[in-house]
Amino acid sequence: MNNSANQTISQFIPLLKNQNFEKIEKLILSLSQKEQETPFFLNLLGVAKIQNNTASTEQALNLFEEAFKKDNSLTDALYNLCSFSLKTLKFKSSILFFLNEHLEKVKFDFKAITFLARIHFELGNIDDSIKFYKKTIGKKETTNTHWSNTIFISNYSSCYIHKDYEKLCNDYLITLKKIKKTELVDFKFKKNKKKRIAFYSTNLNQHSVTNFLIDTIKQFNKSGYETIAFNGTKLDSQDKQTNELKKLFSEWVDVQDLNDLQVINKIRNNRINILFDLVGYTYGSRMNIFKNRSAPIQISWIGNTNTTCLDQMDYIITDPYVIDSNQTFIEKFLKMPNIWSCHTLIKEKIDIVDLPAIKNNHITFGSFNTFSK
Description:
seven-stranded parallel β-sheet
């Protein structure tokens, strides 16, 4: 890169520090056509246009794609292409080729491997997704999310083997920190007039979990229990449904910004009798708060219909159909007589029209699950 180009780029450094994307976009568009078409500025223009909402999804993805095509050492452009593709669930046909080509060249790139795992999952290539997630395990960059994603999506595989699933769980669980007893507050139990039943979730918003939760909480309240929500839902994910749920629970405790020790002690201080985990190994999994026993009775429900393999998870809610009784579960079964969950009635008005098969002369099958399922 020549001195003139370096001087041009240096103008953008303070703007980037201040995240002044409006000025960045104007400044790039004031450059010559030749300068605008350099990989650095194509990539930066894509970022600025996303921040300023001045480009369609397709236009932004094209800018990142073009930048990386011109300079395949510009990993920022590749990462931006992947990140924005996942955000919008729009995938260029080149994206898997770019990622695989990049990994052939550099041999190992944790971020690129994670992107491959996530993209394959969204495309429904479950076994490929698991293969790449497994490559992220045991590295210095490995997070709880990498572990929980690998464990959870193994349930989606048509090659599912229960022993392999159990091994993944156990390999993860031994990485979790055993908190010293001296750091934990003692369980605080006075003889409560009412049993205190708590629920931990990262999905206390417009989510399928809440559709199963609402009427259950109402029934607990009617039956004389105190219901407490330990809310791990991120602030930017909370919505109208979150506000409605706050009115429903006897008590509401935000824990999304607390570390594991703080959450455990918060739960213990609240004199909880029974704690439900509504997350399991899904997004926001915090198995450590259950491994270090936050409540005397801990139950897995809704979020995870497979075993957690966690000794401290006492029970899992099931029914005659949802779990294969021949599989080995660490939890004891609390088997409901008919069905393991209670879905809230749909309030939206739904227009009933003629069956399409009458006009089409054939039956059309559909699924409202996510594509990866």
